Amino acid sequence: MSVIKYLSDYIDNQDYPKGVKESLKCNWKTAVKKRIEDYHGKYFIESRCVVTDYEINISWSDKYRSIYKVNNELWISSAVPAWRNGWRQYIKKEQTRELVDYYFHFLTQYWHRCNVTPILVFLMWRYNVSAEWVGSPTINQENFSDLEFQENFKNKELSAFVKQINCDYPMVHNACYHYIRMWNLLNNDFTEDAFVNMDCIASLVRMRCEEAHGKNSNLALLGFNEKQIKMMTSLHIIRSEFAAHPSQSKWWDFFEVFKNESDEYTDLSINMILKIGSSFYSKNPVERSYEGITNAPTKFHDCFWFNKIQAKNG
After folding, report:
1. Crossing angle of the two packed helices 226-238 and 191-213, in degrees rounded to 10
2. Are 230 and 268 in contact (CB under 8 A)?
3. SS3 of residue 109 by DSSP
């Protein structure tokens, strides 16, 4: 489904005036294309403090993201296409311009998160430290820069990790989100709730296996051994019996009962993410270009737009 058809479906279910859908179609093929071409090579850069008061010496960057230390703080900078704001001179019809402006606001926000999420997961996994992008206490923004970050791949471990964990793939991004939620819940003693997020990652593994190898295919095709497959089955049982529904036994003692298993399932969770990420090596993500977003599949737009939420609420 093209982005025009996708947003047209959204318009049909909202209180937009007549003519907005046709205006969107015309403007997308002309004004939107020209705006993107005019800002080719320009980036919107956002920098946030993600870790405070922690002694981690780490420095790494590729063209579109960078992690570096400032005093005792770790900062991440992220660069995305400069397509947010600035639509007034390109689109005259107010309702159409507002829709396009909102679309690119959420799209570039999503791409920022695609850039930084693998690094956040790496910090949590490797250093056992809380890393916050969305809840960062300090944010610096810079509009319309033509600078790219100087590549620095000296941290081989991080380089290998982000190469395997590409959050431009929605399923990989979704799994990483649940890992971050899981980590935060575990470190705040919400152990039962953390198992929900672990089971969500396992569900994404099954979805990816079915997508890549067909319905009812063996998870071993993604590289999982027999013990790991059994653990994923157990995850769903634990989640159902203690978190998704009222427990019939030992509800006060969940942490003590599953303390050792919790560490094993945490290790399994990062392994599941790596396996999902590895399975996408032969596929290309949506390009950050006019053609890329115009022809992107529905599941790409669903990551940051409202059609699915609207359908469920409608």
Report:
1. 130
2. no
3. helix
Helices 94-127 and 156-164 sit at what angle, rounded to 10 degrees? 130
CA distance 172 to 236: 20
The size of the chain, in residues, is 314
Q: Which two tokens stand for residue 24?
A: 């969107």
Residue 244 is classified by DSSP as I
Helix (H) or strand (E) holding 47: strand 43-51
Q: Could you give the CA distance from residue 121 to residue 126 in angstroms, rounded to a whole number?
A: 8
Q: Rounded distance, CA 153 to CA 145, Å?
A: 23
Give the up-direction half-sphere exposure of residue 146: CA atoms within 13 A in the CB hemisphere: 4
Residue 112 CA to its chain's centroid (Å): 9
Q: Is the pLDDT of residue 205 over 80?
A: yes
pLDDT greater than 60 at residue 312: no
Quick one: pLDDT at residue 127? 93
Task: Please report where in the chains the tokens 């606001």 appear, as a residue.
Answer: 105
Residues ≥6 apart with Cβ < 8 Å to 41: 146
**Which of the four pLDDT bands, split at 50, 70 and 90, describes residue 220?**
very high
The sign one gets for the Cα dihedral 136, 127, 174, 292 is positive
| Mean pLDDT score of the chain | 90
The SS3 of residue 280 is coil
CA contacts within 13 A on the Cβ side of 99: 28
List of residues 6+ apart from 125 with CB closer than 8 A: 179, 270
Using DSSP, state whether 51 is helix, strand or coil.
strand
Which has the minimum average pLDDT: 68-77, 237-246, 276-285?
Answer: 237-246
Please report the pLDDT score of residue 282 as a whole number.
65
| 69-92 confidence digits (pLDDT tens) | 988 899 999 999 999 888 999 999
> What is the reported pTM?
0.91
Strand order in the sheet with 65-70: 60-61, 65-70, 73-81, 43-51, 139-145
Which parts of 128-187 fold into alpha helices (H)?
A: 156-164, 170-186
